[in-house]
Every structure is written in structure tokens, then in C-alpha cells.
Design brief:
Elements lengths: L1 H15 L3 E3 L1 H14 L4 H16 L10 H10 L9 E6 L2 E5 L5 H19 L1 E9 L6 H8 L3 E7 L3 E4 L6 E4 L3 E5 L7 E5 L6 H10 L8 E2 L5 E2 L7 E2 L5 H16 L23 E9 L6 H16 L15 H13 L1 E3 L1 H14 L11
Length: 369
Amino acid sequence: MKAARDTFEMNQKSEDCFPVYCSVKEVRAFLLRAMEAVKVDREIAAVACESLLHASIRGTDSHGIRLLPHYVAGVLGGRINPNPKIRFERRAPSCGVLDADDTFGGAAAVAAIDEAIKLASETGTGFVAVKNSSHCGALAPFALRAANQDMVGLAFTHATPKMRSENGVRPFFGTNPLCVAAPMLNEEPFCFDSAPTPFSNNKVKQYREEGRQLPPGVAADRQGVETLDPELAEQLLPIGGYKGIGLSMVVDMFCGLFTGMAMGDEVSTMYGNSMSEKRKLGQFFGAINIEAFEKPEVFKKRIQDLADRMRREPTGETGSDILVPGDPEKRAQKIRMEKGIPLTKKGRDDFYQLAQSLEMEMIRGNDDE
């Protein structure tokens, strides 16, 4: 056991000791070159790349630019439609359904939340269900679009069945995340973006790639027994046991029942299946116009006060800061906008292989400047 732990620690150090920091501008250009190389529609590519970039800027690396090779493979394999005809149908004064035509989930999500914002501007609330979509990455970029227009933004997506049922031995629901964002007075919007599991499947993959040991309470092996070894991790554990399962089922209700897409253990998987297989995911987005309930300046002042009062609460023996949801992401964003986005050796290797295969210029970073 000690030898295995030492190996994990040694691998972690070897990965983290040689980060290359790439400016946001440089990363954006690389992402767009890759999309252009596989003939993705320019507007779709710009939005899809921005959602990946946004996640990495905010420190959500598991859902950030590391997914670019996977997305490119999806385009080349036929899973992702690079030139979709996205269609929106208004079904009621404040509701509609968007058909993503199997394109990038991030592009579909932006189209959907923008339609929801339009509806909310007119009626006070706007809700858009998305069908025939694919992986959309972190949800924060989409809910924040509403928050930046003095609205409360909502975002839901279902995902690969990876979460072990409470008292079960195999996964049934996905790590179905939900996100709520709201404007604040003196800082970037409040943003809670979380799956009903401590880790996402992509974060476990990230730990596996980096040779890092998983924390307790995160994953289970094929038999449903908890494990700290990312190589053995095949299932994720829910937060709060039965309550985490409940949250996942609620998200599936919005994303599966309102869209006609699959639910629970029938949702398609992100990895392991042919890249020609469409994901056919459902998502759900909402915007609530604050002005329909309260003056926006009053709302923002009160939520700011709530957050500030929470941060001033007494701390325990560790002395660690008390964090409001979204604080770690805001801190990461401040650092990375100045220093750049870090790429581990694995990340650089993946990007190099992608650049070689697409015959395009490799990202440079500060190692080569």
C-alpha cells in the first residue's frame, strides 16, 4: 500500500513540476484553429471554444480545454454535428424547446439560455428545454449569461450513468449537475455549479491521467466497493447518500422528461462507445427576471450582504477561509487572467498529438517564449 501511495505522489509531482502557462488569447486561438481544421461552423466553433475556455479560466480544469481532443474526435467520428441547424420553438409565453441537431452542447446551451433571457425580458421568466444535444461542459458559463443581465440563471444537464445508487453495487443515474447564478453588488455573480457527487467523471479521469490518488468518499470500483485508486474507479459516490440520488433524479426530470430524451441508466455514455454514436442528451435552462419580483439594486445589495456576512463567520482551528459558492472559481479567474492557463505535461502531450494530426501550429506557452 505504501509503495502504491509513493508512486501516486511521485507521479503527481512529476506532472505538476513542469506546468506551461498559456495566455487566454493564445489558448483561444489554438482552440479555434483546431475547430477550423475539422470544418466546424465559425459561429458554432466560437461559442463551443468559449465554454471550454471559460471553465479553464475559472479553474474547472476537468471540464475545460483538456476536452478539446475529445470534442475533435466527436466531430471526426460523426458524434458531433459541426454544421447544425439549431431550431427553437416557443411553446408558451415563457417556455420553449430547442433542437440542438446533435451539435456541441456548449453551443446549444448558449442558444438556449439566450432564448430564455429573451422570454424573461418579456414575461418575467423564461425556460428552454434542449433536446438532441451533446456534452456541454461546465454549466456556469450559461447561467452566468443570465446573471450578467440582472437575472437569476438556471442550468441543468444529465450525464453518463456513473453514480452508484445508495446501497447498490452499480451506477444508475449520471452525475447530473445543476447551476444557479445571480448578480451581486460589488463582485462577479454568485454561482453554484455542482454535481450531486464530490467529483465528476472527468475529474476522476484527470486524476488518473496525472497519477494522483483520489480522496476518500469519491469513487467505487466495478463491484461497488469504495477505492482511492483512480485506475480502479468505475463508479462515483453520491453526496449525502440517498439525497444525492434524489438531486440527480430531479435533474433527469427536467432534462429527460421535458425533452423526450433518455433518463437514468439509459443515458448515453461519453467514453467507451463509438464516436459515431450521437449522445442525444437533454438539457434545461432558465432565466428569472429579478425586476419581476424585486428592484435589481436591492436584490444585489442583499445577496452581497448575505455573502459578506457568511465570509465573516468565525473559523475553526484550521483558520481556513469560509467560502461562498463560486469563491474558488473567482480566485482562479483572477490568477489565470494574469498568469495564464496551466498545461500539465499530459495536457501538452495531448495538444501536441492533436496539432500533429491536424497539421496545425502547436500552442507555445511561456516555455518557448
